[in-house]
Amino acid sequence: MPRDTSLKEDYIDSVNSVIDYIEEHLSSQITLDDLCSESFYSSVHLQRIFFHTVGETIGQYRKGRRLSVAADKLATTSMTILEIALQLGYDSQESFTRAFKSKYYVTPGKYRRLGLHFVVTQKKRLSKRDLMGTKGGMRMEPKIVHKPAFKVIGLKYYGNDPANNCPKLWRDFMERHTEIENVISVKESYGLMCTGVEDFVDGKFDYIASVAVSSLENIPEGMVGAVIPEATYAVFTHNGKLDSLQETYEYIYGKWFQNSEYEPIGLNEFEFYDERFTGEEDSELYIYVPIKKKQ
Fold it and tell me: Were 160 and a residue from 20, 203, 219, 274 both cysteine, which residue would form a disulfide, CB within 3.0 to 4.6 Å?
C-alpha cells in the first residue's frame, strides 16, 4: 500500500502559511493565536516545528525579516531612518537602532553610510524536497519507550540564545556536579528542555544541565531541582559531533513526526548523555521526546 503523504503536504502548506502571514504583517502586531489559526497546530507544537525546521524561533525569524526589509530600504530608498522605523512598526528611531545593531552589528546610519546591502534573514519557503529523505547524524526510526518519573538537579539557563550559552552552562555544571548529593549515576547526565511554557514574544525557553538523583534534598546553591513526570517517549539517536545536532532535530520535527502516529507533547524533552558520548565522530547521544497518539 502506498504511504500516505497528506501529513507531509499539510505540514508544508501550514508552515508556509505561517511564514506568509508573518511577511504580510511585518509592520503590525501579531499574536501566537494568529499564527496558530494559520497552521492549525497547538502553540507549543507550532513553535517547536518552526524552530527545528527554520532554525530560529518565530520571534527571532520575524525580527530578522523586519530588519532585513529595513536594511533593503536603507540601501535602496531615500527614506529617513525614522520613516523606515515607523513603517516597520518600531515606536522610535532609538528602538529601531538598537534592534538593527543587535542583528547587523552596525547602526542604520553606518550601514547606509558604508553603502552596505545584504540580508541576514531571507524569507523561507518550504518545499516537498525539504521533507524527503534523511540526512546524516540520526537513525531512521526511534524507539518508543515508557519511562517513570525521575528527579534531577542541575544548573539552569533561561533565554533565547542557547547556542552561545548552553556550552558554558555545561562547562560550569561539570565543574560543580560533585557538589550534588544522591546522584544515581555519575556516568549519565541530562539536558532538559522546556520544563515550562515557552515565551513566544522573546522565544525564550529553559534548559537544565543535570544529573538524575534519588532525592531533591540539599540542592547546592545556584542550582535547581526538577521532577520530570512519567511519560512515553520517542527516543532518537544522534550520531557524531554536536555541530550536526540541528540536522537531527530537523529530521525529528520536520520529517518523522509528519508521518508518525504520534505527536510531541511539547514539554520536558531531554538529551541523554552517557559513556557513549565523546563529542567525536563516533559519539552517540539520545534525544527523548515525550509523545502522545495523534487524535
Answer: 203
